[in-house]
Each structure stands twice: as structure tokens, then as C-alpha cells.
Design goal:
The chain is α+β, with helices and mostly antiparallel strands and 171 residues long. It has five helices and five strands, in the order βββββααααα.
Length: 171
């Protein structure tokens, strides 16, 4: 299991992209905290005032390194080849979205976003909007993908969509 260092950016399965602030025992007056155990103190990039505490070596919370610039560009360049998460059955669709989000990979997030884009086009021709379930998972996928690409490419979060469009258009 990889150990993260203070200053590194990681992707937390539950919280998205975070910056590791400290690695060490927690200084909290709580009986719920193991005093001798080391924790990652992390700051979500989407909530700079928030703090997340994850025990070092925990198998309950998955954490991985943020992709590097080369991997981010390769992922963007491969978008057109990434399959959709297409499920016709409304009842099983949400479970498939959950499973794809749980995978917490850039490719999975793109699969969801591409699916939502296509569903939005189809439903639009029928005079319908996306379902609330579709909207929910689109927002989750976009948030996680854009946060990670923002860090990997060193561009503001708000510019990630433009960057993707431009890169795809010019390839």
C-alpha cells in the first residue's frame, strides 16, 4: 500500500481530489480516535475549509494518486473510444452508475458523462429532460473528473471543459 506525503494530491473514493496536509497522529480530544495511529489529514479541493481524516493503511477508504499530465492528456485523447454506460432498464441504471462511480477512475467518469450527454440529446428530441438520477450522477462524474484534470493539467477547474473541447476539436 502506497504512503502519501504532505503536499501531494490524491483522489479519495468518497471525497474526490484532496491535498494531503499532514501525516501523523491526530490531536483531537475524542475517544473515537486511536491516539497512536497515524492519519492522513486531507483538504478537499472543492472545500478548502473542510478536513478529512483517513487512517494510514485503511482498507475502508480507497485513495489513489492523481494522474499526471501525460495520463490526463492521454485520457482526453481517448474519450471518443470510451464506451457508454448504457442500461435501458430504469431500475438497474442507477446501480450501474453507482458501480461506475465506485470504480473511481477517469475513464468511468467519462463513461457516465458521455452516456448522460447522449441521453440528454435523445430525451431532448422527445421533449424531455434528464431524470434527476441522471443529473445526480452526471454532476458527480463531472466534479471528480474536472477536479482531477484541473490538478493534473494545472489549469483552473472552470477551464477544464473548454480545454477538453479544444483538445478534442484540434485532434
Amino acid at each position: 500500500m502506497e504512503q502519501w506525503k504532505a503536499g501531494e494530491y490524491v483522489v479519495s473514493e468518497n471525497s474526490g481530489v484532496c491535498k494531503v496536509l499532514e501525516v501523523g497522529p491526530l490531536d483531537l480530544n475524542s475517544s473515537l480516535v486511536e491516539k497512536k495511529r497515524e492519519y492522513y489529514t486531507m483538504e478537499p479541493v472543492s472545500n478548502r475549509s473542510g478536513r478529512i481524516y483517513v487512517p494510514v493503511g485503511s482498507t475502508k477508504s480507497r485513495i489513489r494518486k492523481v494522474m499526471n499530465r501525460e495520463a490526463a492528456l492521454k485520457l482526453i485523447d481517448s474519450m471518443k473510444d470510451i464506451d457508454l454506460v448504457w442500461v435501458d432498464n430504469e431500475r438497474t441504471r442507477e446501480q450501474e452508475y453507482k458501480n461506475t462511480i465506485k470504480d473511481f477512475s477517469g475513464e468511468g467518469w467519462i463513461r457516465i458523462m458521455k452516456t448522460m450527454y447522449q441521453r440528454k440529446q435523445i430525451r431532448g428530441t422527445q421533449g424531455k429532460r434528464l431524470t434527476s438520477i441522471d443529473e445526480k450522477y452526471w454532476k458527480i462524474a463531472e466534479k471528480h473528473l474536472f477536479e482531477e484534470l484541473s490538478i493534473a493539467l494545472q489549469i483552473p477547474y472552470e477551464k477544464v471543459g473548454e480545454f477538453i473541447e479544444s483538445r478534442i476539436k484540434n485532434s
